[in-house]
Amino acid sequence: MMRTPLLYCIAGLLLLLYGCGSPSPVTNGAEYPPAFTEQLEATRQRIDQVIADGIQVPLPKDMAGGPTHEVHKQNWKTLRDAGAMYRLTSNAKYAAFLRDALLEYAKVYQSWPTHPTQRSYATGKIFWQCLNDANWLVYVSQGYADIYDWLDEDSRKTIDNDLFRPMADFLSVDNPQFFNRIHNHSTWGNAAVGMIGLVMEDDSLVNRALYGLPADLIPDDLRDDDTGKIKDKYGRAGFLAQLDLSFSPDGYFTEGPYYLRYALSPFLLFGKSLAENRPDLGVLEYRDGILRKAVFSLLNQADPTGDFFPINDSQKGMSLYSPEVVKTVDYAYYYFGKDPQLLSLAEQQGQFTLDEAGVAVALAIAEGRAETYVPQSLTFTDGPEGTEGGVGVLRAYGTNDEQTCLVMKYSAQGMGHGHFDKLAYSLYNEGGEVIQDYGAARWVNIDQKGGGRYLPENNSWAKQTVAHNTLVIDRTSHYHGKISIAEELHPDLFAFATDDPTVQLVSATTDNAYPGRILHRSQYLLTAPAFAAPLLLDLFRSSGNSPALHELPTWYHGQLLSSSVEYNVSNDLSPMGENHGYQHLWLEANGKTQQKQAAVSWLHDGRFYTQTMVTQPDDELLFVRLGANDPAFNLRRDPGFILQRAGVTTTTFASILETHGSYTPRDEIPNDPYGNVNEFQLVINTKDYTALRFAHENGDEWLLMMTNTNNAPEAEHSLKISGKTYNWSGVHHLTKTN
What is the pLDDT of residues 459-508, one digit of tens each? Predict the structure, then answer.
């Protein structure tokens, strides 16, 4: 096995570049770029402190966030980094410390029962779930690889046979329901078994990791009762199958960016090990470079602040600057093309991987090669063949060059982490979320909140359709909230157009979220000199064969300022429903719309927002707040408003959202606090075409026309509006009419 990578060769080149100077105690004479050396010194101090204090190997008993969980979690980082310190400094005290710590684990591992919590479908031994055991083994195997050739034969045999082989068997043979399926959990399991197999030069473990368990090791409970065949869920498995089935052809991970950020670690770490030890597999080039595509897919799924879009079961706040993404950026630069824009991300992360990739990134930054990272408007397909919907991302810039980012989700369900929110959207600017996706009801690694597990409200609220900014019919979630139905169905892209940066469009349709009903949503980011920030123009058409209650929520951040609709405040709050998420909503106020348009404005993080909506005489505006039926206070008390339209068979919701002005409490002076759209109307609304007119208070007026049926780019269209004929080709046409 190639346990000594290219790092020492790179160190020699750096000596020539930087000069020898006096030897550094942390690098034993090797001169690394200053930022890398600084991180290495911090790592040395941390590991030296653990060596002085002695490592703890307690009997596992706690859920995530509890004391024993956190000790073992910290141990995997310490043992990994101790190996790196030996590799980088040749100081044998780090190898000896790592050896002795592993021998301590080897003494007790086989005597430990499965974790006493018994709260997982695959209970671990070191942690409450096998997933965390696999995390531990992935990272510790890196440190073990660094000292394997240094070890004496007796220590190596003891660690191999009393710790690592039993652990690999536990994660795979003893827990096939964890190891043998397509899921981010299984990717960790495959990588853990494969990486330790490579270290120990055990081909049986490596093959198990690459191709899944052999059929004779699949137990009866994972087989069909009638035929005895392995259930589809547990059939094709292993690391190569994960590469084939977890990503679309353009690198979109079906579980969403939060989980891709997490799952890329085993993909990249095992991929790197395979590239060094099994180059015949060509893993880094596998499936037309799917790992490279996955990396850049992840980096392009972040808002202007760097936070990842909280699609599906996502913990908010995970970002481009999270620890796991350091590896993603460094490896992307080193293995996938030396893109200088990645260096600016690495600079902001301020950390490097302790290997040849990290050295290369630190050196390139020191040489001034970094360029500003500029994400693009783009669309991702979903599903292994790219045929299961996708996600569209639009980015536009206002007069002050601040970015506005729109995300529309029309993807597949996302496996067990998916939400019932087809054609949902979220909106961001450089202050963060404006119109939010709830994410997950979970407090990761907070022991007091269910030991860090998903909370019951994740199913009863966060996954439900009303929790998102998309249309709800008859207060029932898409696919009736049943994952068995949702996993078989998906929306389809109708149009994605970004050639003209002033008029960008993402449009998608579905005919299966509700039986007998077609939903079609089209969203534009429009820029014009009259508006300081890009406008979001939203068209949501619903057509069916029977009347239904339609409700379109908007989940905004901030403080409500005003509404053009007169409303009645409820002083006797009660839940709005009994299921599909409505049981968690308080109705705080409501009012009937009296005009042909309605506007709601709010203030958030020093910016004003106004949403203007086309309305009908019997529409009702509901002001709602999250928090009903939540005795443990697991949910945020978020505000929202719902435009309700009852008893309609076919209808179109249209709105335009402005970002305008500013306010600072220090100065107490509002700037441009009122919206500028003073006219907004549907002038054509048929099965085939929709046309909207909107105007700025300064007198500027625009007409937006689009086809609802023929999305061919070369298709010719013609509409007569107010006595004038408009001709265009393609899906849409925007014209200034004065």
Answer: 999 999 999 999 999 999 999 999 999 999 999 999 999 999 999 999 99
Residues in Cβ contact with 501 at an 8 Å cutoff, skipping those fewer than 6 apart: 396, 397, 527
Q: Among this protein's residues, is 417 annotated catalytic?
A: yes
Closest to 144 measured CA to CA, from 125, 127, 167: 167
Tell me the C-alpha distance between 464 and 466, whole Å. Answer: 6
Could you read off the pLDDT of 588-642 as tens digits, one per residue?
999 999 889 999 999 999 999 999 999 999 999 999 999 999 999 999 999 999 9
Give the distance, in angstroms, between the CA of residue 257 and the centroid of all CA atoms in the same chain: 2
Strand partners, 592: 620
Q: Which amino acid is at 478?
A: H
Report which secondary-structure segment, H or E, holds 66.
Answer: none
> What does R_g of the chain's alpha carbons equal in angstroms?
28
d(CA 441, CA 499): 38
Half-sphere exposure of 424 (CA within 13 A, CB side): 33
The position carrying tokens 């005895």 is: 228
Identity of the amino acid at 655: S
Ranges of H-type helices in 90-174: 92-108, 130-147, 153-159, 165-171
Q: Roughly what angle, to the nearest 10 degrees, separates helices 67-89 and 92-108? A: 150
- Contact at 8 Å (CB) between 354 and 88? yes
Q: Nearest to residue 563, comparing CAs of 526, 585, 592, 530?
A: 592
Backbone angles phi, psi at 184, to 5 degrees: -65, -30
259 tagged catalytic:
yes
CB 726 within 8 A of CB 719: yes
Say if residues 170 and 122 touch (Cβ distance below 8 Å): no
Dihedrals phi, psi of 410, to nearest 5 degrees: -135, 40
Phi-psi category of residue 415: left, alpha or beta, with phi > 0 → left and psi -120 to 50 → alpha: left
C-alpha distances out from residue 736 to 365, 535, 703, 713, Å: 46, 15, 6, 22
Q: Across-strand partners of 449? A: none
3-state secondary structure 416-433: HHCCCCCCEEEEEECCEE
Measured in degrees and rounded to the nearest 5, phi and psi for residue 539 equal: -120, 125
Higher pLDDT: 594 or 349? It is 349
According to DSSP, the residues that pair with 472 across neighbouring strands are 551
Cα maximum dimension of the chain: 92
Q: 72, 417, 584, 696: which is the annotated catalytic residue?
A: 417
Q: Which helix (H) or strand (E) holds 437?
A: none
CA separation, residue 79 to residues 8, 43, 144 (Å): 21, 12, 8
Q: 458 phi and psi, to 5 degrees? A: -65, -40
Helix (H) or strand (E) run with residue 35 in it:
helix 34-53
Asked if 362 contacts 333 with a C-beta cutoff of 8 angstroms, the reply is no
Q: Residue 31 has what pLDDT?
A: 76
Q: How far apart are CA 496 and CA 444, in angstroms?
A: 36
Q: Please tell me which residue in 259, 373, 410, 514 is annotated as part of the active site.
A: 259
| pLDDT value of residue 67 | 95
pTM flag (> 0.90): yes
Nearest in space to 303 (alpha carbons), one of 216, 197, 403 = 403
Residue 386's CB is within 10 A of a number of other CB atoms, namely 15
Buried b (16+ CB within 10 A) or exposed e, 470-480: bbbbebbbbbe
Instruction: Extract the tokens encoding 185.
Output: 């959990």
Per DSSP, the three-state class of 711 is coil
Average pLDDT value for residue range 96-113: 98
